[in-house]
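Lab manual, section 2.4: Encoding a predicted structure.

Procedure: take the sequence of the chain (546 residues), apply the prediction step described in section 2.3, and record the output as structure tokens. A sample record is shown.
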Amino acid sequence: MKKNIQDLLIPVIKNSLKSLGMDKAYGELLSLDLPQDSRYGDLSTNIALRLSKAIHKPPMEIAAALADNINRNLKGGVLKDYVNQAKAEGAGFINFYLSDRYFYEQLHNIISKGSNFIKVNFGKGRRVLIEFVSANPTGPLSVAHARQAVAGDALANILDCLGFSVKREYYLNDEGNQINILGKSIELRLKELSGEKIEFPEDHYQGEYIYDMAREIKDKGLEIKDFSAYGVEYILNIIKDELRDSGVKFDCWYSQKKLRESGKIDKALNFLKKKGFIYEQEGAVWFKSTGLGDDKDRVVIKSDGSYTYLAPDIAYHQDKFRRGFSWLINLWGPDHHGYINRLKASVKALGKDSDSLSIIIVQLASIFREGKPVQMSTRRGQYITLREVLDEVGPDASRFFFLMRRTSSHLDFDLDIAKKQTSENPVYYVQYAYARICSILDNSPVKIRFKDVDLSVLKEKEEMELIKKLCQFSYILNICYVTLDPYMLTVYLQALAEDFHKFYDKHRVLGQDEKLTKARLALIEGTRIAISSGLELLGVSRPKKM
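Recorded output:
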């Protein structure tokens, strides 16, 4: 079967709804999901529960009638060899039980396509710009920024796999008050190192990296005209190195300073003024964002003539659209939550649909060492940096662990577990499954052409559960797309590795009769491809030996 079975099943369900006179009530409610318990089929729909209120019938009565009608339609259709039965179960779910033939064909498909089995043209080349991290260059990246970096990078990989044309961008806030404070912090530390007695303000940057910059200036006898510019360049190089060593890449580093110098901010505000969204009041210039989803109007130019944060952001997003991107995705920290509505309003004022901008709030991460949280304070430099995490646990564990919770949930990162080479460490567990499979395949005395293997001899419970898990990959990627969150892929890979270990611990791959050996080799080859593809999307390495 070349088509996605869900794409074939949904029309069958719709036809049954129509024949039972329920088609007008369901609207766009129809979907197919994986049952939480594998005992209840391979696919499931809750359409009967969702229709119950609209048509004034009990969910189970609706489900039973639908299941009966669906089964009759399946008998003469293209799915007759692939769907054994539709059953009304539980509180009113309709569960679909797929045939072994379906799963055998899917395994053959995975093996024949290799790493391309997950690639589809769902996005049809739609141009997407993902802006993430965008931390002010005032210090090394914290673990909060690191989590945003890994989430954005993995999400870009997934969307690219689904057929979107994706670019990654870092918005560099390289001017303003915080940059001025950075420059003053360096200058004061330089004076201190030169023997002057200074009073260092509490609101200035106090990390050791400020001393590092001051020492470099002093030791090399550098003549610095602009301490802020020097600090931005120095720290930006640190940030780029940290991201590179984390496997995070960017296509563009976009400077706010250059944006202002280009005149695009004034042009964007004039554009909004012509559309009636800009007015002056009390000496300031305001953006009329009420009526566009915001709770109040926002100042874009203060009475002293300086821009607020919103003004360059409006121009920046207008520029994103003008560069040809039709879908903008921003990953922000939780301190930006209150900023969402005003930026959404800006996009509407620019004449774009609200769904052309997606904003993902990535919650903070807490680092634990020896069971205790490590305290963080950016200004005082008392925080764990991305570099420290990389040095302690490596890029693979850091990436996997940063993705192990939903971006909307706080993350606890245990450094001690991340360093363990046992099954307690999730990334080690998945990588070990991959290495184990590679070892079996490399050392197998049986050489086969996988496309000619008869998979029908795979009947054991553990064999079928592993095949079924492999067939869930595309469904998992769809969840990642809908939620704009790579988290579910880490869950899936751990479950896939667990199913492989269960199979391998109970059944010998080599040494059985030749037909069964070939079938099991094909099964673990499919598993190898799936684990490899998943780890690649997450940006995690695939060691063949451990």
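Check your result against the sample. The radius of gyration is 28 Å.
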